[in-house]
């Protein structure tokens, strides 16, 4: 759930609700306002803002304000010219659809990049680096998206297991290797079977990396580190999961690339040597595709 949604739904007193209505209306305009400024504007007291923060499970008003402004800044940037749910209409020509879909995918990657933080990415990379193997838990097409990640990681000798039978997800989590780690891929963060997977992983002491939306959800609450993805699509009302898919792909490609870079020269040498042996005889008549002769 987003902070703005929690503010709207949480049980507040009348004076607290006055402040909530004010900040939800003013949004980014409260950035340079102190507690005293907001209290004066709403005819309340600074202590009321502190009570609101505590009810929202924040240490203080400044922490709540910073998180709220960060969320609003994200929601107000990117996707200004395209709707993630319906990027084209029945009036669009095929070339118009082509252009809008390209714009959507570019926006999704930029959107996702804006959510990546150094510390969270570094923590996720170190968890994977130390793990003897990686288990990816996802349902539906998220499992399919994860296959390319598993394929790439296998090329640098990192074992990735993806369970494709939903009924076996919890079983796999319960049998996860002691020194392994888990990646949970979930847009909503509330898929019931994945909640059971998390319980099993936590019971076994398996560190969890979550790929999920920008709000607070079951998956993010229990993960050791959370990598946020583009959060623009509704659950059902959409043409396809265009922005979500490209966002998940980007984060998984990013994790693979960071792991690759830890032993860059060795991985390049190994991957090139093996590929040249396996694909011996493959050629192209196009110069840009031709391999250099060593």
TrEMBL record:
<dbReference type="InterPro" id="IPR036388">
    <property type="entry name" value="WH-like_DNA-bd_sf"/>
</dbReference>
<dbReference type="InterPro" id="IPR000281">
    <property type="entry name" value="HTH_RpiR"/>
</dbReference>
<keyword id="KW-0804">Transcription</keyword>
<dbReference type="Pfam" id="PF01380">
    <property type="entry name" value="SIS"/>
</dbReference>
<keyword id="KW-0805">Transcription regulation</keyword>
<feature type="domain" description="HTH rpiR-type">
    <location>
        <begin position="1"/>
        <end position="75"/>
    </location>
</feature>
<dbReference type="InterPro" id="IPR001347">
    <property type="entry name" value="SIS_dom"/>
</dbReference>
<dbReference type="InterPro" id="IPR046348">
    <property type="entry name" value="SIS_dom_sf"/>
</dbReference>
<dbReference type="InterPro" id="IPR047640">
    <property type="entry name" value="RpiR-like"/>
</dbReference>
<dbReference type="InterPro" id="IPR009057">
    <property type="entry name" value="Homeodomain-like_sf"/>
</dbReference>
<keyword id="KW-0238">DNA-binding</keyword>
<dbReference type="InterPro" id="IPR035472">
    <property type="entry name" value="RpiR-like_SIS"/>
</dbReference>
<dbReference type="Pfam" id="PF01418">
    <property type="entry name" value="HTH_6"/>
</dbReference>
<protein>
    <submittedName>
        <fullName>MurR/RpiR family transcriptional regulator</fullName>
    </submittedName>
</protein>
<feature type="domain" description="SIS">
    <location>
        <begin position="124"/>
        <end position="257"/>
    </location>
</feature>
